[in-house]
Amino acid sequence: MSGPPVTELSTRAREVFRVVVESYLGSGVPVGSRTIAKLAALNLSPASIRNVMQDLEELGLLEAPHTSAGRMPTQTGLRLFVDGMMQTAEPSAEERAAIEARAARGGPIEEALAATSAVLSGLSACAGIVLVPPNEPVLRQFSFVPLSREQAVAVMVGHDGSVENRVVDLPPDIPPSALVEAGNFISERLAGLTLGEARLRMEAEIGRERAALDKAAAALVERGLAIWSQDGASRPVLIVRGQANLIDPGDAADLERVRQLLDEIEGKEEIARLLESARSGQGMKIFIGAENKLFSLSGSSVIAAPYRGIDGRVVGVVGVIGPTRLNYARIVPMVDFTAQALTRMMT
Predict the structure, then answer these.
(1) Which range of residues forms the domain containing residue 50?
(2) 118, 289, 332, 344: least buried by Cβ within 10 Å?
């Protein structure tokens, strides 16, 4: 059932509905007429408020649990509130600083995305999710920085401006000049190729003895490219952090819903497909409860926003999963800010 537009509700009905939703989202407890009379300056008696609540229930916007005389919003009511009545609260300076600090720290992309998602999870008290860019990096520059006689750091700069590094084991007795030679070869001969393409070309050229490299440098190039190729094959489509935030040991009645939600989260491919709809859009997506079949059993909500790469194209999605009783006014702008921070990191 789709609810009526906000404009079709009377001023009295809108105010009662707003108070019910905001109070329920804050407390998780159905709201009674006496509570509304105390919270809102409506100059209405509890009896009049009950009549308005009954009208809202008949419209499908409120419902009354059988264990309580109070009312709580239906999923239709939550959608009406989120789309037409919610007044968002921008993240605090401390929240913005925490998100930006992690997004700007750098490091391998997956680690930065996972850590930023963990920060978002902690701030929102939900499970943080991030859809990793699916495209394999395209090489622009490659270098080897020695750590010791046995190890070096392989540093890769992608065409999207991303910088990643991995520790590689060096072939025995390799001279420092071979590290420079190997890095120059990759940067000059393999730039513009994906990691998989670069490795295939390298193997072909070495096999035909066409690579202008000595054996030590050739072995180092192969090791460096192999690390990222292997990583690329195992890159997660979806990273989830903070599932423990979904569990409230003191709420025994909610444990079955949480168990169902955790089972749903385990099916990461299904969630990734859900987030693809946000990836293909231009802005924030909010899925409430049974609006999406994946979370129809647990009655959970997903708030997700796309982030962009260096060329302005959407490359991934970041967001949160939690119960339908979320503080949407606070979390929606927080997710949007995190998407902007990841966009700045990617560019």
Answers:
(1) 6-85
(2) 344
